[in-house]
Amino acid sequence: MAGRRRRSGLPRLTSARDARMLQLLVYRHRSWSLAQLTQDFNQSVARPVIESTVRCYLHRACLRSYAAVTKPFLTPRHVALRRKWARDKSSWTPQDWRKVILADESTFTERSARGEAHVWRRPTERYLPACLWTSFKSGRLSLSVWGGFSARGRTPLVRVEGRLNQHKYIDILHIHLLPFVEAKHGGTSNFKLLDDNCGPHRARAVRFYMALHGLERVDWDPQSPDMNPIENVWSVLERRLRARLTPSTTLDMLFDAFCEEWDRLPDSLFAGLSEGMPRRVGALAVASGHSTKY
Predict the structure, then answer these.
(1) What is the mean pLDDT of residues 143-169?
(2) Mean pLDDT, to the nearest integer, of 153-169?
(3) What is each CA distance from 255 to 142, 146, 157, 248, 293, in whole angstroms?
(4) HEC string of 226-252?
């Protein structure tokens, strides 16, 4: 019989109990740096250790430092509403979602100087609430546009001058959305509109206009951009704009570039996002209303 000879080596500086205590410390303070974790850990053990030792113990427990995923802040009420929304939409088929127009506004600004936050987690804990970096809505404006799509095509891209209000939103619905519905869906009785709960979208005048023209709306829960795939379209557009060789120097040039890239997007992108809605709803149900990978 042949085998590896047992070697003594240096004894471990910490016990199994200390290693478990270090893991609990990471679970309580996911965003702490390695130096902070080491300093706090050394205050509770008899033999202080250095940062490289702490890193080795964390890596042995499959805990590594990753850039935190930014997601909207969710209160318990938001989580409950999102969970209920997922239950209500779980019976919708891809054919049902093909009749839905997904629309929203987007504001293109310079890349944020906020940087990235890092958290200690396992590879499978990327979307764990404790490992997320929550974002909040910002009032900073640059160039605002409105657009929408369904599995049958896309609306024109509309530039929103100034802050959106109920009157501007009614103009967008009347001038741009209704012709698209007539051309692609054969009338307002064959489609539903999915937009978020911002003030102009839910204003009394807008509700009256939609009722007058037979426009039906899909109910929506707050803080749920991951359930509207138009956010993926905005992300694709942003990457395409930043990859252009000639940067835009004025808002007019930026809007023209927006429209060019919007028209270049393949129809298969919109059809795939629309028909993939059941998977999004299923992911939200599995997450019990918390953040998803979308």
Answers:
(1) 92
(2) 92
(3) 11, 11, 9, 9, 30
(4) HHCCHHHHHHHHHHHHHCCCCCCCCHH
Residue 118 has pLDDT above 90, yes or no: no
Residue given tokens 């009157």 in the structure block = 167
pTM of the predicted protein model: 0.75
Look at the chain and report how many structural domains it folds into. Answer: 2
Residue with tokens 């956010």: 231
Domain match, 99 and 57 both? no
**Same-domain pairing of 92 and 200:** yes
Percent of residues, the chain, with pLDDT higher than 70 = 92
Q: Which long-range contacts (CB under 8 A, 24 or more apart) does 258-264 make?
A: 258/108, 258/143, 258/145, 258/157, 259/157, 261/237, 262/147, 262/154, 262/157, 262/237, 264/240
Could you tell me the residue range of the domain that residue 41 belongs to?
A: 16-61
Residue 25 contacts residue 37 (beta carbons within 8 Å): yes
Tokens encoding 216: 């039906």
Same domain, 44 and 96: no
C-alpha angle 95-99-101 in degrees, rounded to nearest 5: 135
Q: Tell me if 208 is assigned to some domain.
A: yes
pLDDT of residue 189 exceeding 90, the answer is no
- What are the phi and psi torsion angles at 240 (to 5°)? -65, -40
Of 15-24, 102-111, 151-160, 200-209, the least confident:
102-111
Residue type, 177: L
Same domain, 54 and 140: no
Between strands 69-72 and 100-108, the pairing is unpaired
If asked whether residues 85 and 227 sit together in one domain, one would say yes
Looking at residue 232, its amino acid is N
103 has a pLDDT exceeding 60: yes
Statement to judge: residues 33 and 87 lie in one domain = no
- Shared domain check, 149 and 81: yes
